[in-house]
Amino acid sequence: MSETEIRVHVASxxxxxxxELCVRSMRKYAGIPFELVVGDGGxxxxxxxxxxxxxxxxxxxxxxxxxxxxxxxxxxxxxWLAECPRRYCVFSDxxxxxxxxxxxxxxxxxxxxxxxxxxxxxxxxSDLHYLHPAYGVEMHLAARPSPWLMLVDVEQVxxxxxxxxxxxxxxxxxxxxxxxxxxxxxxxxxELVERRLPWQAMPxxxxxxxxHFGGMSWGLPGxxxxxxxxxxxxxxxxxxxxxxxxxxxxxxxxxxxxxxxLRRSPTR
Length: 268
Prior knowledge:
single chain; alpha/beta; two-stranded antiparallel sheet; 35% helix; globular
């Protein structure tokens, strides 16, 4: 396996500490060589300074996009899949921490062994009564693979019609059926199934090698986690707002502890 066959992509904005944790732990535990591209949507915290430092070390290639409004997550993924020059295209959220050796080599092994066009960390089935974690709105959410960590075989996915977008998509309600919502990756997955391309979710035991904090860059534009969501959602009850804030504070504290430990560990 040459180091040019896998390219990992991370989209980040105003999530400096957790993005640093993602990059450091990703490199430490991958198990095989890979290229890394980080797309920053115009951060105003310390993210750019940190990422430029990593770029100088040769750890990653930094792409800065300062369009207004900032490029959305699905837009980053669409662009990267269309442009990826390598056989395998990996997407990771910036708030993923890697905990076990061989997380990437394991995903590649499953891809090769099964012939899968897409391997995801986790698969979420359709939910007729999905409750939005911040807004508290109930919706019919379509099945989807985890967009926070997946590997795509570019050759298989591109061998056919233009790839479906990773952007949020809605099938409007009709007289006989309710609206169906496709969150990031959901519409892409639907096309994968319609084209009868094989896919695979990683074994449940493997999930111990990764941890997705979740929601730490919600509420764009502006980034900064769920605080931006709360500012735009005045209808949330006071109790729900406090719960969201409490979860964010716990995540941030955990990130700080884990990042300090990684900074002290040997680097390469």
